[in-house]
Amino acid sequence: MIKIYSYGEVPNSEIFAREESISRVSDTVTDIIRTVREQGDAALFSFCEKFDGAKLSALEVSDEEIEEAIAGTEEEFLEILREAAANIRAFHERQVRNSFVLSEQDGVVVGQKVTPIEKVGLYVPGGTAAYPSTVLMDSIPAKIAGCREIVMVTPPGKDGKVAPVILAAAKIAGVDRIFKVGGAQAIAALAYGTESIPCVDKIVGPGNAYVAEAKKQVFGKVSIDMIAGPSEILIVADGTCQPENIAADLLSQAEHDKMASAVLVTDSMELALRVREQLEVQIPLLPRQEIARASIDRNGKIIVAKDNLLLAIDIANEIAPEHLELCVDNPFDYLDRIRNAGSVFMGKYCPEALGDYFAGPNHTLPTGGTARFSSPLSVDDFVKKSQFTYYTRAALERVAGKVAYFAGREGLDAHARSALIRFEEKAK
Q: Which member of 85, 135, 234, 359 lies 3.0 to 4.6 Å from 169 by CB, making a disulfide possible if both were Cys?
């Protein structure tokens, strides 16, 4: 049963505590990465048979397999995928950054050049569940950014095939190449390349502890998006909310993972008690009730900030959740007070599931309190920025002495000389 805390009556350390997932897979992942670097495709075939139970003859998904997957996916779902993709595309197109040039001083031109990352690797989890939403969310911003090649990796089933809905989503999103490989070995292949899989410049996408650890270990060889932890939802709700709705929204994230965190912060003890009752009613009805039960009992919380909705929002800011539902009337009145959240869902008719699948904003979000300093996946993650500077002779002459003086204060005489030497009288 979920715990209820009255804010101010228990230590804040207990209210704000997060259960931390401790990874013990570092050595195993190091061995996997080394094996892939040494053996290439042979290692991937071996690991696929060992971990996925699939004996493959080829790693890359063929065009025929993609067409077969699309033909085998019901048209209704294809239409929903296309509509979701359109929403995601429309949102992320507004994020595109432009290069700029400044020439406000005579003889001086400075600017910024925005360039797409050339090759991006997309990891899509597989195994017991298929996540076409991840395909859309992580590849569409890359396409908008102008990345030349998007390479997707995802584990196959025991039949050696990728889930049809994954391939359908990849086709709709414009993924360039797809490979049947998962786990840490997939991350290693993307980072270092094999005979079949090209090395990329950046790897994005969620995964299990092995995938997260592999991303940590290859960072520096390639860029990564983030290290995603267990899913989180925090709901700020006033006393007028329907408890069954709040309970359902909490469970929408609790069913992800036994380590997932579902938190309600409310100004009403009555609502807190009724939500707790509703959780007990709804959990037994879920196909994934074992997972949801463990999540709610282990990491679930209801925090009561009695008669003080603004305090409830302050508590939410302190927790800095991945997903924040602002279930209040007139939610835009409070939006400016939200400082730390990955994605904010406004009002009483905006469940977090909208963001997972359909609304358009990205669902790859900072977890574990990292919303204090990081952002959702965006087009920005798929570009890099270069600076450029141009000075004429006259413009440099005006400031060369200042540059040299600054360099001298740092004890870097060669720096100073490089600014002055162009104006020294040359010996005849």
A: 135
Cα(34)–Cα(285) distance, rounded to whole angstroms? 45
Helix (H, G, I), strand (E, B) or coil at 72: coil
AA letter at 373: F
Pick the more confident residue, 362 or 21: 362
Residues 309 and 245 grouped into a single domain: yes
Domain annotation covers residue 9? no
Quickly list DSSP for 17-57. --PPPPP--HHHHHHHHHHHHHHTHHHHHHHIIIII----S
- Is the pLDDT at 17 greater than 90? The verdict is no
- Residues of the domain holding 99: 26-224
- DSSP output for 214-252: HHHHHBTTBEES----S-EEEEEE-TTS-HHHHHHHHHH
Residues belonging to the active site: 322-323
Q: Is 70 exceeded by the pLDDT of residue 428? A: no
In this prediction, residue 16 carries a pLDDT of: 80
On the question of pLDDT at 244 being above 50, the answer is yes
Position 173 in a domain: yes
Q: Find the largest Cα–Cα distance for the chain.
A: 95
What letters, b where the CB count within 10 A reaches 16 and e where it falls short, cover 364-373?
A: bbbbbbbbee
- Residue 375 counted as domain residue: no
Same-domain check for residues 355 and 408: no
Mean pLDDT score, 160-167? 95
**Of 205, 224, 243, which one is at a domain's C-terminal end?**
224
